Structures are given as structure tokens and as C-alpha cells.
Amino acid sequence: MEKKTARLRRAVKSRMRIKAQGTDRLCVFRTPRHIYAQVIAASGSKVLVSASTLDKEVRGRINNGGNKEAAGVVGQVIAERAMQAGITTVAFDRSGFKFHGRVKALADAAREQGMKF
């Protein structure tokens, strides 16, 4: 359980810095089978847009939810939905996960669609 508590401790540290900025945050959570992304309001009380490998729109474009290609599709979808909601600038909250692999693929795909971190 020490690995999970270390990740959560890192997540809290980064979220406190993001909260001080006062911007909306793009929060990423990953499991071995799926990846989830949400844009959360600056106050932290409301989810503005969300996307995951469980969405019908995403499931039709991927074969497996636990790889980089699926994370890239989720990044594109979350960026498109955020742009439709009028959100262009966010702070990237990686939830204590390392910035590589699927987390990086999601971030790069969102940047390509026009999101600014």
C-alpha cells in the first residue's frame, strides 16, 4: 500500500500548487484497463467536461483501453469537448502518476487539439 500512498501524497502536493494558480485543471486517472480525464473547475466543486475509454464515442475508435493509442484518443476527445465548452487554458493534474507513457500520450494529444497547459 506504500506505493499508492506515495502517489496520493504527490497528487496532493501538485493539486495545492494548481489551486494557488486559480485555473481549471485537467485531471487524469489511469487504471491498467482504462484511462479517465476530467476538466474540473478552479473551485474544485464541479466537473466541466469529461472523457474516458468507457465512452461510446471513444470505444468505437479503440481496440484496447489500456494503451497509448487509447490515451491519445481520450486526449483528443477531452480537448474537443473543452473547446466546445469554451475552455482553452488548463493546468495539467497528473494525479501523482509519472509523466510518461499513457499520461504523456493523453497530454500530447490534448495539446495538438489546441489545449494550453
Describe this structure in words.
- The chain is α+β, with helices and mostly antiparallel strands and 117 residues long.
- The protein has helices at residues 2-21, 56-59, 68-84, 102-112; strands at residues 25-30, 35-40, 47-52, 91-93.
- It has a 4-stranded mixed beta sheet.
- Helix 3 runs parallel beside helix 4 (102-112).
- The longest helix has 20 residues, at 2-21.
- The mean pLDDT is 96.
Poorly predicted runs of 5 or more residues = none
**Number of E-type strands:** 4
Helix fraction by DSSP (H/I, runs of at least 4) = 40-55%
- Class derived from helix and strand content: alpha+beta
- Alpha-carbon distance between the termini? 31 Å
**Given the C-alpha coordinates, what overall shape results?**
globular
Strand order, main sheet: write it out.
3-2-1-4
Strand content: 15-25%
Q: Helix-strand pattern, N to C? A: HEEEHHEH
Gyration radius over CA: 13 Å
Please count the helical segments: 4
How can the largest sheet be summarized?
Answer: 4 strands, mixed
Indicate the topology:
Elements: H1 2-21, E1 25-30, E2 35-40, E3 47-52, H2 56-59, H3 68-84, E4 91-93, H4 102-112
Parallel strand pairs: 1-4
Antiparallel strand pairs: 1-2, 2-3
In short:
By secondary structure, the protein is an alpha+beta fold. Helix content is 44%, strand content 18%. The chain contains 4 helices and 4 strands.
Features:
single chain, 117 residues, alpha+beta, 4-stranded mixed beta sheet, globular
